[in-house]
Structures
1.
Amino acid sequence: MEGTLRHFVQSVRPLTDATFVIRIDRHGFRALPGQHVTLGPHRSATNREYSLYSSPEAPYLEFLIRARPGSETACALQRAQPGDEVDLAGPYGDFLIERPADPGRRYLFVATGAGIAPFHCFVRSYPSLDYRLLHGVATLADRYEREAYAPGRYVACVSREDGGEYRGRVTDYLREHPVETDRLCYLCGHSAMVARVYDQLREQGVPSDNLLTETFF
Amino acid sequence: MKVAISYPPIVNARGQVAMVSQNRNVQYFKIPTFLLPIVHAQAATWLRDLGCEVRWDDGNAQRKSFETWYEELVAWRPDVVVFESTTPVMKFYWRLVGRLKNDLPKTVVIMTGYHSMRQPEETLRACAVDVVVQSNHVDFVLRRLLPYLGEQADWRTACTIEGLFIRVDENVWRSTGTFKRVEDLNLSPDIDRDLVSWRRYAFENGNFLRTPGTYATSVIRDCTFGKCTFCRYNGPDLTFSVRSVERSLDEYQRLIEEYGVREIFDDSGVWYRGEQARAFARGILDRGLHRRGCYFGFNTRFGYMDEETVALLAKANFRFVLVGLEAADEETLLRLHKGYLPHQAYRNLEVFTRYGLHPHLTIMVGYYWQTAAQLELTVRTVRDLMLKGLARTLQVTLCTPLDFTPYHLECQEAGVLLTDDYDAFDMSKLIVRTPIPHEAYYQAIRDLYGVATDPRFVARQLRYLTSGRARDWEFLFRYGWRALRRVRNHVYNLTSNG
Ligand code: SF4
């Protein structure tokens, strides 16, 4: 049965002071790219939902997590040591690419912060995807592992620093670079960003049937 | 434009009234129980603000008979009537819409709600409804649609507002496309309490420890978690939207200062968690609202509240915490996608009660796979939690597939549904095939409610209520009496089944 296997931490890979990738052993756990799980330290009182960051085919499971001050689950996972047990349940969710092999299908992925996790999973799982990824971040350091994306496909919209691919928010970028209306658009991030970008893409003529959204706090 | 947002009194053969607006399920109650439908109340407020003449038409809360309610609505001659659907009352609505369209052929009838949003064509086929709203953001959709109806004579063919099924003529309808799943809830107004006659909902509601109580304009729509398979807040068509902490705090302040409410409950599927929950509690403390004799409460799930947050909430005068345990065996929790394991329930309840919160557990029995051992474990665990004082009150219901939730679809696929008559989906009896006789589940409900009369439980409740931390005799009498009436209502239903 799903979710009843025991999972142990293999490593915690820091990306910034607050953001890290936790790798746990897979133990036969199955998920689809874009799905998420609930994850928390073993026997703790709390858990949170995290999207799969690694390809479901990888021999391990990875999750990209940002630990804000006071977020008990994320901070505890950040402190985890190899061999520590975690509680994992799932997978859940319908934020999926239905026909990744469809020729000619183009995608737009829009994420803020750690909302990039499902898109990382998509591009790892489906290497031939024709996509453009907009990543809204505050600083250059928040462009988590951007070398994972094919050259020219990843655009960081950096709001507080110069030196990135684009200075400004994703909404600014989209205003200057309207999207082709036949793209399938996937939005993942904070509720307010998702609502704003959705409106913007609708105004640019993207049909609502081509917009998929996933929110988190 | 004259718009009625209508909740007809729906009375079953036993004289019980359907609570359609209950946020997750519909139940029939013999005793009066009035629940304010939050999203529709926001819609009413927004439409009124836009200049519509709005009739808040809750025949239940206004204690009208069906015929009185109907005659008054027809006499008012609305341009638009909005209903809210859910599975067990669909057949009623289909008949009602037919009658209404007969008496008021020019009136546009709009069906909202979780049943018809997932099967819009069924309702368009079954009755003369004009529009089915597919979005859970009823306020946002009506706010776009109604001005459009007023301006565009050809709206049936021309309207492009997404999330609608529109009748073009008797046998033809069209979809306007997928609805916007995430809305900025800060754009929707706070409920106008006077417009919805808030005091009608302020006393008869099992979730209030103190009265007058009221529901806050929800901070989350529908549920932050949204994965439990039986819950209407789960589905590929849904995600959640959030309202800002400051905006909600302003409303709490107004409710306390201008309306004198003594309890505010937020019925969001799952309320804030983490930093937002702490910011909310700090806001209550900063504004001194915790010293105004008002309790606060919310729904949460196991796994969302850490100790620091709970401590802060308790300091801010939060009390009633409604949390769905559902079952105590690991297999059922995993199959339901609850996302936690039994040990987490204990850990969370220990933290809640350590800080004087009042956990109210909801439990369900009668899952189509539930074995005698699983049922027994649930009964034993819940009794243990109650006797240890880790939960203060509880509500037990029969798990009933509704509104095409994943559990509903699973029951259909597994071929375990015993009926397809929607009238039977009213939670009064089990409608799925189970591995043990239905009577075993009914008995489990009686056993679970029976804990209320266990001398150990009564002694513990008295100790709690006389403790310095929670001396609240008003609660003992008022809440205790209401709880007893609720138990009688459930036992009445089950006795009739037995
Ligand atoms: S936690 Fe589960 S049952 Fe409760 S409102 Fe959310 S999805 Fe529904």
2.
Amino acid sequence: MSASILGSPLSAGGCSSARCGAATSQTDQLPASLQQRFQDHPCYSEEAHQYFARIHVAVAPACNIQCNYCNRKYDCSNESRPGVVSEVLTPEQAVKKTLIVAAEIPQMSVLGIAGPGDALANPGRTFEVFRELSRRAPDIKLCLSTNGLMLPQYVDEIAAANIDHVTITINCLDPEIGARIYPWIFWNHRRVQGREAAEILIAQQQKGLEMLVARGILVKVNSVMIPGINDEHLKEVSRVVRAKGAFLHNVMPLISEAEHGTHFGLTGQRGPTPEELKNLQDACAGEMSMMRHCRQCRADAVGMLGEDRGSEFSLARIDALQIDEAFEQAARQRRAEVREAIHAELEAKRATRHGGKAEVLSFTPLARGRPVQMAVASSGSGVINQHFGHAREFLIYEASSKGVRFLGTRRAAQYCGGEVECGEHEADNTLARTIAILADCEVILCSRIGIEPWRKLEEAGIRPDTEHAMESIEGSVFAVWRQMLESGRLDVAPFADQMRA
Amino acid sequence: MSLEIIEGCVNCWACLPLCPNEAIIEARPHFLIEPEACTECVEAYATPQCAAICPVEGVIVDSLGVALNPPGSLQPQVA
Ligand code: SF4
Ligand code: SF4
């Protein structure tokens, strides 16, 4: 890595290490053929997720295994936040909903089936939707998520349905560990419990992964980080699945609130702290990038990542609308236009990132200065454009002499378990919890913020900054860091460390 | 001869596609088994399929009211 990229907040060009990239360009490190396949995928490309949208349809309600972090009253927790219930659609309803959403949100580029149970425990329903959509909306990419138990059996059907992304949730390779995560599976018409269950599940997952890779289907692996059970082990999982050809390994935190009634929730198994999660994600991030912007969206999510417009497309509305061939044709046309416009914009951005600009600041010696974590409130398009109080989640960045790095997202307190459970908390309480969530950040960048939150955040050592409203995120994060460096503020330890001392 | 789904069923759907006789109905407040259609799977499988996948203890019972998945039977065997 040359010093010349340091000065340019948008630059990551020329660097082949996964560890130093600027935030928008983690997928720059992937082979060109893969980049091509990702570039419209909001869940895999950090760039695309600002522009393109996805829809999940809840057609697959049944599940064939039990996870200790799941309560079957609710949707699958691998694919959704715990405590969420999706309305189950028939395959016909799901197809119609997708076509309508893709007409009204022309940025729609991906359809996923991820539950609310397991896509492959409902093969008839799942494949009916895929078949119908690949015929009527061939421009939309199809993906599915599964626990992997039935994967080997359906690999050929997956290939035939033109599905290019499959996500497998793999939490372990060791059946001893597996037995502490999965109490039972349904296999060959009977229930199998304990270690034997874990052995079967693990073998099926690994076999399915290998078969998909052999057929050229992209495989992402999700893992749930369960402190004390599989946290250390996930480093091994990461190494093995990537060696077998998974293109991404995404580590998600266990969420185990007692009120969700999961086994882990009821037995006091805790989830990881943001710091533990980040450390593990760092340890697992090898040559290929981790998907830090994953939001664990719900099985019926609609829209851009981080937003859910599902309520605009209620079943009653979908059923009432009539659609015909002309409607579908017009929608395809519109999507093609929108996609072209977005590509042009992304192209221009990439050109800036890889090109010229870098030298301008190349003489600035920036080797000193400790890294600083900052939180950003943004509703998309790569700019700081959200009011602190409206943010449902914060993007977390780290700025250092190496440039700017995207670390992940954190849900704002008000949105913690979905609107259903915690819409009623009083403002103070919510603010205190948001501050706790952002405790390791030194700056919060937003477009606006109220006086009260401003004061409380400052007291907690998190400096609100609204100077960069409507400016690019990476550029602003880096500018703020440089300002901190120049004013000598990086010579003192972060507030959080001072408090601890 | 038939099984019954009783209160406590969480409507998770797992049993419905497995029934060889399509005896399970997506009903509310909870799913139901059509008694005339249910054979307890005797000819088709070694064990009643709905009870083999149901994630909730005690909600599928036989004609004597005995739970096929009694309390504790679905709990993790390892801590
Ligand atoms: S016992 Fe068998 S036949 Fe009866 S409802 Fe259950 S799955 Fe169907
Ligand atoms: S599997 Fe059990 S809980 Fe689920 S729907 Fe059937 S009876 Fe109800």
3.
Amino acid sequence: MSEQRMTQDMAVELKDTSDHELIEMHTSGEVGETLLEVDHVTLRFGGVVALNDVNFEIRRGEILGLIGPNGAGKTTCFNAMTGVYTPTEGKIRFKGKEIAGTKPHRINHLGIARTFQNIRLFPEMSAMENVMVGCDARHKTSVVGVLFRLYRVRPSEEELPDSGIRRSLAKVFGISRHTLEERAGRRRSMELLRFVGIADRAHELARNLPYGYQRRLEIARALATEPELICLDEPAAGFNPAEKEDLMGLIRRIRDLGHTVLVIEHDMKLVLGVTDRIVVLEFGSKIAEGTPDEVARNPKVIAAYLGEPDDAA
Amino acid sequence: MSQILDAYRGLKLGDRWDGAPKVVRWAVMLLVIAFAFYLPYLNILPFAYIRTDLSSTGSDWASVLFLIVVYMIVAVGLNVVIGLAGLLDLGYVGFYALGAYSIALFGSTNSPVVGALQSRFGFSEEWAVPFAVCIPIAIVMSLIAGVFLGAPTLRLRGDYLAIVTLGFGEIIRITARNLDNVTNGAAGITQVPVPPGPEIDGRNFFNTIDAERWYWLALTVLLLIIFLARRLEHSRVGRAWLAIREDEDAASVMGVAGFKFKLWAFAIGATLGGLAGLLFGSKQQYVEPNAFMVNLSFLFVAMVVIGGSGNIFGALLGAFLLTYLPERFRAFVDWRPFAFGVALVAVMILRPQGLVPSRRRAREFEDRRHEAEEAAADV
Ligand SMILES: Nc1ncnc2c1ncn2[C@@H]1O[C@H](COP(=O)(O)OP(=O)(O)OP(=O)(O)O)[C@@H](O)[C@H]1O
Ligand SMILES: [Mg+2]
């Protein structure tokens, strides 16, 4: 995008001040009910048993930590939940519905989003466009709709354009759903970028963003798909202690928006501080589960995890 | 003031275009369009040198313009497939042929299909499917072909897709040649209908003599298609294609239905190919299998690649150059394949992203080159 366009856009985008209503989640479920069930899941890669009869649940509204040493199977667990891999055995249920074997984009539409341990943004798109791709997951305009814009919506007073002719046209013919969705998507994207704290570089290419911005952009992009459950794979990897502290604050605010959060994190201290419950994996098996206090006191966990030198800390 | 001007001069053409006021942009666009419509009559020196009919052996200028525009439609369609969705389709001529054959098979009294319909329903010898009905038939046929080819093959990646589509293009041509009692085989179908229009000087509005009318028709279609293609590019659909091109797995986890959007790209490309074929067949008023050889597919791909894939204007430029230059320099006809080869190699070496690539595409190429260099340095 050219410099000129960029500044024009930014002027539009930055005009209205922070507006949380745009990005709040509205769900019908009750806090505390089971949202996702990992039901005796085993996942093998040839001879390697990446997950061995793993069994836990995620409850609506909580922040659940998933921890374990390197190679424990945490990322594999994410992959199984988001449709990247299909479990060899066992079931995964989201809101009571079996989802193992469902295509990743369908699982996303059901309400699960994730970030990647090794950042996987769309590097040639701007930060804003990356988030827009996420917003599109909830948009309804089809390819035919984009081409011909026949689906018109009667605009509300504030959606009407300012200028004379356009205003009268919009009053008579309505505004196409596509136009409204694009507009709403841009505003929501900007709000999300502001929420994760990187709005100042919204129009820069993702590849040119500093590392910390890229990690936050991944979170914004995942949030854009309006997930009931958001899974963060080591979102603070490579951060210094101050940045990590910041990020934990962000995770709490994500929950406060109405999302349920599952987070993988190596830094034990941080996990204990931010999570409601913790599941511990080792060599593909669950070895403990409970509140941070319980887990921290669990001898198995201490032996498997805390006992080892913590390379990531 | 001079500072501003200096800054302005430093900008690339694209930036200047983006930065210009809307009125200016519209004015320039309208001027270009008006000029394009005027082209057949261009007779003022020195501009008239661009005409192809200056010598007695030259080709009819308006007909050349028509062919250029038909190939531009092809290029815009193929650009959706190759440039936007990133799918290498080497059988595009198949859709082009399907479009041409659709109108011939259903619209010509010479076609066995029409003959069968006549005797089946007791229509007169002059009856054929009306032109206006042939258009949706052609569109639907190429669309269906696109979906049928795409559905099983789009799960393949990269080279495999190229090979399968290459086969498809040949299958269409060979089928057309061998199905004697449907397509008249190698003899082809004559009397392909022309669009309806008022009679002028005792001739149809669209006839073999007044080629500029065909050119204007094709140009109008092209403008409409460019308008629609740009809508696609700057929408969730264009974003989805780009996301798929950049990281298909990440895109699907973000809710992008990769297969669906790739299939759409294929279907849209197929439809535009068919539409171009329809125009071509109708103007020729004659369709035969040998007009759809596989080398035409390569020419189409070359247009998009040389022009700059991912950018509509690049594709248009590619189509223009590869159609216009051979016609303008007909005297050197024996050198054509050689010149084509040299030009292709030169562009690939000097400007692999194409002459006017989309900026993103240019960067993607740059990235890949760096990766390749790093990989080479590692060895
Ligand atoms: N696609 C695959 N093919 C074969 N083996 C795999 C594959 N993906 C993961 N594994 C194996 O599964 C095991 C678990 O890997 P996983 O990436 O889930 O660990 P992790 O807990 O995320 O570790 P880390 O903290 O290093 O990210 C490892 O032994 C890994 O080698
Ligand atoms: Mg991992």
4.
Amino acid sequence: MEFSFVEELVHRLKVFQAMATNVVTVSPENSLRDAQITMREARVSGIPVVKDNIMVGIVTIEDIIQALDHGYIEEPIDRWMTRDVVTVEPNWPLSRAMSILDRTRFGRLPVLDEDGRLCGVITPESILRALLTELNRLLARDEKSEVTIETLESEALRLRFEIEAGDYDRAGLASVQLKRELASRGVEPALQRRVAIATHEAETNLIIHSTSGGTIIADLEPESIRLTVTDDGPGIDDIEQAMQPGYSTASDFIRSLGFGAGMGLPNIKRCADHFEFKSKPGLGTRLNLRFDLKPRSATGQVQPADAIPSL
Amino acid sequence: MLWSDAIKALAAQTLVDGPDFEVKNFAAADLLSDILATSKEDFVILTGQTSPQAIRTAVAVGALGVIIVRGKQVLPESINVARNYGIPLAATQLKMFESCVTLGGLLWSSPSSKN
Ligand SMILES: Nc1ncnc2c1ncn2[C@@H]1O[C@H](COP(=O)(O)OP(=O)(O)O)[C@@H](O)[C@H]1O
Ligand SMILES: [Mg+2]
């Protein structure tokens, strides 16, 4: 399948990111006249009918016109509303809601959460607003991450990267920035590569698995480079299992982005000269890595790992 | 083979240009983790991923260039990242398999890459 830029965008955005959340509703006992007034005041062309927090139907401007035409505008909504409402779910890709809008020609799609509660409405306007907001965000964002650089008492240079949970767009940013820094300091390319790969895997783990992000600290010391990666949750139950090549708890969505093959931790271990991995459920996870500036083999190149099927 | 030979063979469109260079190997993958696990040297990445993340992954593993397959639309952000990090970028209409077959034929008949 081939995607244009906008198609990629609407596939990546979720329904909940594009829905209007300030939904005006009516109750089934109200008259169609009440619905008409509410719709006019809220400037909407359709309105969900809600009873005891559950959506039971929908009334639209068409229903109102019919009612005015045939003289039943004062009758209760309950008698005339559409009960069989097409709805969408908050976690669906926006593209799915858009194709339903397109196919059915409805002007709006109520969004129901797992418990069947109305949590928003998708309309062409709400989609347009979400797309423009997302485009603005993409254009405004540059290639900078939250990196700070300081010199420690020990003369070591410390780079600190703050990584946000769920920030897939920036995956790899800390890695390439650290690599650039190492290159500018004359670190040999094979070592740059090992550090960059380990940083990349560590940073995607924070993005994908941590509850509220984490920190990567890179200390450039005279003899070695030390990486310390920390987060404060959720922690890992079974470290041995997590270290297994191919073991991953990543969702299908994350896999569709090209992550979550379960190769991260083994790959980090392969790249580092010293590897220490600690985690406590509920407390967090900590990774201590050391890379020696002296090459570890004659060539200093990345070693193929036994456990990792390499390309 | 040269980067320019690969581009020509795949009838690829150059998105980020640079000086020509020798390619010894290719790594073909859509999973970023696969790209990160390669131990190849002097290689170019073939991928169906068009995101800036894919370009950064290529930078991290020290790939010499990136070729995007399947005629996918490349995000402007990705082109920016490639330009920023000086990594040549091209896109071909060919699918992954066709691209690999084409490049394999060239690579293994070329005298400069007997390893
Ligand atoms: N920082 C972390 N916090 C919580 N769980 C983690 C963390 N890092 C890794 N894990 C767990 O270890 C598993 C394996 O990690 P990894 O080898 O990097 O593979 P992947 O990230 O592709 O799932 C993850 O799927 C996840 O369950
Ligand atoms: Mg991982």
